Amino acid sequence: MESDLMQRTAAQNPPPGFHPIALVDGFLGRNGPVFVKREDDGSVVFGSRVMPHMTNPMGAAHGGWVATLVDVTLPLTARFTVPELDHHFLLTVNLSIDYLAGAKLGDWVEGRARVLRRTTRMTFVDGLLSVEGETIVRASGIFRTGPGGPSIPFWSDLPAP
After folding, report:
1. CATH no. for residue 138?
2. In this structure, is residue 93 part of a structural domain?
3. For residue 156, is it within any domain?
4. Is the separation of the CB atoms in 37 and 54 below 8 Å?
């Protein structure tokens, strides 16, 4: 499984500065990879190239795959930018997605999000997915702070794909 993911990682040809997220098992291991880049201001940008296994019969990014990228971008933005959340799993309570345009096979899709509010148990996040600067998805989510867990490392020590 990991070698298959490594081959798909290399095939993605991400823009400079993006590193794969070290999630090789489960759903993302089969439907990824997803990349992340930390900006100078501490924010994070997620990305993935639309590959054949991510498309619908029309050759466009499958809506379920797009929703998955949203469900990675929003909670992981909180985990990677809010120190108190780094070691907590964030459980999706609500996810609202507006599909504004599509992404096609080969497109590099980027996701950016921001934490709007936090309570003791909940984190509220909104975000956008875009292709070449054009917004294709607007989303918001509510995430419950779950049990502790390991950090999610970047594979920054891997050779560039």
Report:
1. 3.10.129.10
2. yes
3. no
4. no
Domain containing 50 equals 2-148
Whether 23 is covered by a domain: the verdict is yes
Distance between CA atoms of 94 and 91, rounded to whole angstroms? 9
Count up the domains in the chain and report the number.
1
**pLDDT tens per residue across span 53-109:** 899 999 999 999 999 999 999 999 999 999 999 889 899 999 999 999 999 999 999
Q: Whole-prediction pTM value?
A: 0.87
Per-residue model confidence as pLDDT tens digits over 118-133: 999 999 999 999 999 9
What's the mean pLDDT when you consider all of the chain?
87
Q: What values do phi and psi take at 19, rounded to 5? A: -125, 145
In DSSP terms, 98 is beta-bridged to 138
Does residue 160 lie in a domain region?
no
Three-state secondary structure string covering the chain: CHHHHHHHHHHHCCCCCCEEECCCCHHHHHHCCCEEEECCCCCEEEEEECCHHHECCCCEECHHHHHHHHHHHHHHHHHHHCHHHCCEEEEEEEEEEEECCCCECCCEEEEEEEEEEECCCEEEEEEEEEECCEEEEEEEEEEEEEEECCCCCECCCCCCC
